[in-house]
């Protein structure tokens, strides 16, 4: 009988202890202080102040160098990434044929010079004889024609020399300005052909953007307009100014090209990066409703982007979003939120899905 009494007492004690422990845990969970947060209501925008256009960054000073002669490459004393000065040799092309042609022309100039000197002497002599009535008009005319032909041959030989000298400049390709070698499409021993890009040089630190603006908005874009350029690959916004506005879309379809000079910046921008240029002018075309939220409120988890919202039960709920274009410090929400909903702007502690919150 005593044994059964001890067993019942032990079971009762165990139940009491478990119950107390659960009550203690429940009290602890219920008394966790909520996280103070600030919320903001979403406003649906039917119009925004920006005309946007896609663009691409390029160096302000950039050159793709080629040659006008055909020949094997003898040397390339520079590599991609090297800094070069104006006039520095970049590529040397074999010019043996030009040297031979130059020697032939030099010989032709010598021959034409001798002939011209003799023709000039005969012409001067016959002028004196004709003045003394010792030579006929026919003889003087013959000497004059011979003199003019010799003079023309000498001038032609000199112009051929100038042509060869100009071709020598294409055998030794030099830097047109101080900059950096950005690409090289040929190696020593390769055959260089006329018009083929061989090496590219650009000036670092000076960049511009070429943007394509639709015909419905181009009339609002003016030279001198200050703009914002969003470089998505480095998540930076750089200011700039419109320097050129195309007045024809003959070769670009219905898109007009606008050139924007970027201000000096420490951002690691490079030629070829894609951008979105934001022009601070009202759009003419009818726009659909859009939802804009501040980028500072976004939460990133790997490849996903979301935002915390406040539930009716007073907890934080993480909503994944599909985003669109960036407009200044705000970004367009394509899906995941609807108008008149509220989202958490800031919190005094780290939020997580289901955390208790207190709206301030």
UniProtKB/TrEMBL annotation:
Residues 63-191 form the CzcB-like barrel-sandwich hybrid domain. It holds the Pfam family Beta-barrel_RND_2. It comes from the Bacteria. Belongs to the membrane fusion protein (MFP) (TC 8.A.1) family. It comes from Formosa sediminum. One of its GO terms (molecular function) is efflux transmembrane transporter activity. Residues 209-279 form the CusB-like beta-barrel domain. This is Efflux RND transporter periplasmic adaptor subunit. Residues 1-21 form the signal peptide. Residues 133-167 form a coiled coil. SUPFAM superfamilies: HlyD-like secretion proteins. Gene3D superfamilies: 2.40.30.170, 2.40.420.20, 2.40.50.100, Helix hairpin bin. Keywords: Coiled coil, Signal. One of its GO terms (cellular component) is efflux pump complex.
């Amino acid at each position: 009988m005593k044994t059964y009494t001890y067993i019942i007492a032990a079971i009762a004690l165990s139940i009491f202890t478990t119950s107390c422990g659960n009550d203690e845990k429940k009290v602890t969970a219920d008394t966790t202080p909520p996280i103070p947060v600030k919320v903001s209501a979403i406003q649906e925008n039917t119009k925004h102040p920006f005309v946007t256009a896609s663009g691409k960054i390029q160096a302000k000073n950039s050159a793709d160098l080629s040659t006008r002669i055909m020949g094997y490459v003898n040397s390339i004393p520079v590599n991609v990434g090297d800094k070069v000065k104006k006039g520095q040799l970049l590529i040397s092309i074999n010019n043996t044929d030009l040297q031979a042609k130059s020697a032939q022309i030099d010989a032709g100039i010598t021959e034409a010079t001798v002939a011209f000197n003799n023709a000039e002497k005969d012409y001067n002599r016959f002028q004196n004889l004709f003045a003394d009535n010792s030579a006929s008009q026919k003889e003087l005319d013959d000497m004059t024609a011979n003199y003019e032909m010799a003079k023309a041959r000498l001038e032609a030989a000199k112009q051929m020399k100038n042509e060869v000298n100009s071709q020598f400049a294409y055998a030794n390709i030099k830097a047109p300005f101080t900059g950096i070698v950005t690409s090289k499409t040929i190696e020593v021993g390769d055959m260089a052909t006329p018009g083929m890009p061989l090496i590219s040089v650009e000036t670092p630190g000076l960049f511009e953007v070429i943007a394509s603006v639709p015909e419905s908005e181009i009339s609002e874009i003016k030279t001198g307009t200050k703009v914002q350029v969003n470089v998505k690959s480095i998540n930076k916004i750089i200011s700039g100014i419109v320097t050129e506005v195309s007045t024809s879309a003959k070769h670009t379809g219905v898109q007009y090209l606008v050139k924007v000079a970027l201000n000096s910046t420490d951002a690691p921008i490079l030629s070829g990066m894609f951008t979105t240029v934001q022009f601070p002018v009202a759009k003419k075309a009818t726009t659909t409703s859009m939802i804009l939220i501040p980028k500072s409120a976004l939460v990133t988890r790997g490849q996903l982007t979301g935002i915390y919202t406040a539930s009716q039960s007073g907890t934080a709920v993480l909503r994944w979003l599909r985003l669109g274009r960036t407009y200044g410090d705000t970004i367009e929400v394509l899906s995941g939120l609807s108008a008149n909903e509220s989202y958490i702007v800031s919190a005094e502690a780290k939020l997580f899905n289901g955390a208790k919150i207190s709206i301030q």
